[in-house]
Amino acid sequence: MGRYLKRSGGHGMTLLEIDSVTKEFDGDLTVLRDVSLTVRPGELVWLRGRSGAGKTTLLSLAGLLSSPTHGTVRVDGAEVGTASRAAEVRRSRIGFVFQKPLFLPALSTVDNVMLPSPLPHSEARAAADQLLTRFDVGSRADHRPGLLSGGEAQRVALARALMNDPALVLADEPTAGLDAETAALVRTHLAELAHEQRAVVVASHDDGFADVATRSVTLRNGELTDA
Ligand SMILES: Nc1ncnc2c1ncn2[C@@H]1O[C@H](COP(=O)(O)OP(=O)(O)OP(=O)(O)O)[C@@H](O)[C@H]1O
């Protein structure tokens, strides 16, 4: 786990800065209205809101997967102007965890985890094995991902999200569909990532995040409010 605990704090630094963002679809559907959110290293922000409130839309803006109609999004202080710069920031600074992790079925589990790494093969393999062990799925490294249970798949997804040692981790419903015990484990793992001075944003209907989040925000009618 060593190298993942060495991240220096950068206290007070803003890792994610969403500033007065509006997101419209098709010119008429306004999903987000003048939304601002600042997340610092060490924070786990729990993003709440009813189905269709715009949580996934906000995460995709934070993850530089889409652009705001108005307003700005900065990750790690970087102004993300061009698509290629966004891709570079996404690859090097952001880890994603989704509700249903997608893996390449023809590759082994560990090869899926290594896929995003720019490291030489042997180093990437060592880092991937270390991460799989950290999340207690080391014994699944050489299995096909199609054979993983839901809880194992989500823990492999956590390993993959950490492969490039991201400063920002974005998770969309990471505990949905998991049994209570596995869901609690995933919440604990996400809290650890914040303790390592990463910035973590989790969109979830899971009230268990009340115990691990450093704060919560709620999307309602396109607007973001505290708690
Ligand atoms: N690409 C798109 N084009 C048009 N409308 C979209 C698009 N993406 C999302 N929407 C709409 O934006 C609204 C917010 O969707 P979003 O998926 O962000 O909600 P959510 O809060 O994540 O919901 P859930 O909790 O059900 O996952 C919905 O009304 C959805 O239909």
Quickly give the CATH architecture.
3-Layer(aba) Sandwich
CATH C-level category: Alpha Beta
Q: Segments where pLDDT lies below 50 for 5+ residues? A: 1-11
Q: Using only CA atoms, what is the Rg?
A: 17 Å
Give the helix proportion (percent range): 25-40%
In the sheet with the most strands, the strands line up as 6-7-8-3-9-10
Distance between the termini: 33 Å
Mean pLDDT level:
91
**β-strand number:** 10
**CATH fourth-tier homologous superfamily:** P-loop containing nucleotide triphosphate hydrolases
Estimate the global geometry from the Cα principal axes.
Answer: globular
Summarize the SSE layout with pairings.
Elements: H1 2-5, E1 16-25, E2 29-39, E3 44-48, H2 55-62, E4 70-75, E5 78-79, H3 83-93, E6 94-97, H4 109-114, H5 121-134, H6 150-162, E7 168-172, H7 180-195, E8 199-203, E9 215-220, E10 223-226
Parallel strand pairs: 3-8, 3-9, 6-7, 7-8
Antiparallel strand pairs: 1-2, 1-4, 4-5, 9-10
Helix pairs in contact: 5-6, 6-7
Pfam families: ABC_tran
Protein name: ATP-binding cassette domain-containing protein
Domain ABC transporter: 16-227
Attribute tags:
disordered N terminus, alpha/beta, nucleotide-binding, Rossmann fold, AAA+_ATPase, 7 helices, 10 strands, binds adenosine-5'-triphosphate
Quick overview:
With 227 residues, the protein is α/β, with parallel strands linked by helices.
Describe the structure.
The protein has 227 residues and is an alpha/beta fold. The protein has one domain: Rossmann fold, CATH 3.40.50.300. It has seven helices and ten strands. It has helices at residues 2-5, 55-62, 83-93, 109-114, 121-134, 150-162, 180-195, and strands spanning 16-25, 29-39, 44-48, 70-75, 78-79, 94-97, 168-172, 199-203, 215-220, 223-226. A six-stranded mixed β-sheet has the order 6-7-8-3-9-10, with helices on both faces. It has a four-stranded antiparallel β-sheet with strand order 2-1-4-5, covered by helices on one side. Helix 7 links the parallel strand 7 (168-172) and strand 8. Helix 5 (121-134) packs across helix 6 (150-162) and helix 6 runs parallel beside helix 7 (180-195). The longest helix has 16 residues, at 180-195. The two termini are 33 Å apart. Adenosine-5'-triphosphate binds at residues 25-26, 29, 31, 49, 51-57. InterPro entries: AAA+_ATPase, ABC_transporter-like_ATP-bd, ABC_transporter-like_CS, ABC_transpr_LolD-like, P-loop_NTPase. One of its GO terms (molecular function) is transmembrane transporter activity. It holds the Pfam family ABC_tran.
